[in-house]
Specification:
9 helices
Length: 462
């Protein structure tokens, strides 16, 4: 055995004392960075103060310091004021919310410019926002009539209501609402006693619509709408069941999605999606300033009835089938339309002075586009087109796939109306059976009648 003494073992933890830990090194580094930032910040403030004194004088520096102190203490005061308001709302206002139902009805009525009655109110919280559940709500406009019935309304209140001095909601959810909508003979609408006048920038429903479109998110579930159109000699009425609607507002623009189940003889399930905006300084209720786009899908529709409810560029007397529609609108006018159709038993009048066109079937894409100034009051015009379209006439004549574009200008002063026609892949015999129904210049019909068209046309322009 060696006579050398053995080294005594190191006590536990001695390595940690001799070698600093990683946490200690990170802490020291953080302190050094913090100190460097403080020095840089202090130096920057000092340089800024010296610059203000040199350029504007010591008075300007005192004013800046006073402004910053005021802003700081204002933020502190706002913080504690909001905290106090939160506590008062949570422990005093919401537990007694149903006792103040008459006052809430009055506030809602003034916001909508109508009458609002509420059966019961319950309150709770959604994160930091008060949440209200209202039962048996009824809303009636100044004209009276059938009210808008809302069995249940769930509303999450936004704190922005304090700044706007009007009710604002993060989310407004309407469950199983029932409403009657009537299109009057003069083209206006009545909804729950409110009269909507599409051609006017402001009407009696404007405050209610402005208020609704100011909300961040509106959700309708399982709604029921009764619609009646009193225009024409025979009113049209149908129901919309299982109505589901979502409207979201972001920086003045709205996105919407609607699904509904109409009366069976009118249409199948409806799917509508789109966006709309009114501009920075226009009222959201001003329909004449709306611009945007929409998509509509109908697996089955009576297109003749639909054409009596919404404006279409041609007169449709009869048509049944499926429809997918993309449309763009601006300033209250439809400016472009693309429709994929698969129709049967079609009867349509393309020109008022011509006989209606009768088709056993029609399938393909139909387009419409406005160009130039607003049609029909400007100097612009309309363009209609068929793309990849095939149809069969009521006489059994089959029209092969064809592409056609018809462009018409509007007569203005001494300038007559002009029409141009472009077509490709056209079977002339089939075309001869259709041209007599198209809106063409009068002399064209005489030329067509004198000639028996036969053969195929690859490209045609006129």
């Amino acid at each position: 055995m060696s006579d050398q003494p053995r080294p005594e073992p190191s006590p536990p933890g001695s390595d940690r004392q001799n070698h600093p830990s990683l946490a200690a090194e990170l802490s020291a580094t953080a302190h050094r960075v913090e100190h460097a930032v403080e020095e840089r910040l202090e130096h920057g403030i000092e340089v800024a103060e010296q610059t203000i004194v040199r350029r504007f004088g010591i008075g300007a520096l005192r004013a800046v310091r006073a402004t910053l102190r005021f802003a700081f203490w204002s933020l502190v005061a706002a913080y504690f004021a909001f905290g106090a308001l939160l506590l008062v709302t949570r422990y005093y206002v919401l537990p007694r919310i149903d006792q103040w139902r008459p006052q809430i009805e009055g506030i809602a009525g003034r916001a909508l410019k109508g009458t609002v009655t509420i059966g019961r109110i319950q309150a709770g919280w959604r994160a930091f926002n008060p949440h209200l559940s209202l039962n048996n709500v009824q809303v009636t406009g100044p004209r009276g009539g059938s009210p808008l019935a809302l069995p249940r309304v769930d509303a999450t209140v936004s704190w922005l209501s304090l700044a706007s001095m009007a009710p604002r909601f993060v989310a407004l959810r309407l469950l199983s609402p029932e409403v009657s909508v009537v299109r009057l003979a003069d083209g206006n609408f009545t909804v729950a006693g409110f009269v909507i006048e599409p051609g006017k920038a402001e009407s009696e429903e404007s405050p209610a619509l402005d208020w609704l479109l100011a909300q961040h998110r509106i959700v309708v579930r399982d709604g029921h709408v009764v619609y009646r159109d009193d225009r024409g000699s025979e009113p049209i009425q149908f129901d919309l069941n299982d109505v589901n609607l979502i409207v979201e507002q972001t920086l003045g623009a709205h996105t919407f999605a609607l699904q509904a189940l109409p009366t069976a003889d009118f249409a199948g399930p409806v799917d509508v999606r789109g966006t709309l905006s009114t501009g920075a300084f226009a009222r959201p209720s001003d329909v004449s300033r709306w611009k945007g786009q929409a998509f509509v899908q109908l697996d089955f529709v009576d297109l003749a009835k639909l054409s009596r409810l919404v404006p279409v560029p041609v007169q449709i007397e009869q048509a049944y089938g499926a429809l997918r529609l993309w449309t763009g609108f601006a300033d209250g006018h439809i400016v472009r339309t693309t429709a994929d159709v698969a129709l049967q038993d079609v009867t349509t009048r393309l020109a008022q002075e011509r006989e209606p066109l009768r088709l056993a079937s029609l399938q393909g894409r139909i387009t419409q586009r406005q160009w130039g100034d607003v049609w029909p009051i400007g100097r612009g015009g309309q363009e209609f087109g068929l793309t990849g379209t095939t149809f069969q006439t009521a006489d059994g004549l089959t029209f092969p796939t064809v592409d056609v574009r018809l462009r018409r200008t509007r007569a203005e002063g001494s300038e007559p109306q002009r029409t141009s026609l472009e077509a490709s892949r056209v079977d002339l015999q089939s075309l001869d059976a259709v041209l007599a129904h198209l809106p063409l210049p009068g002399e064209w019909y005489d030329k067509i009648a004198r000639r028996a068209l036969r053969g195929a046309l690859i490209v045609y322009r006129a």
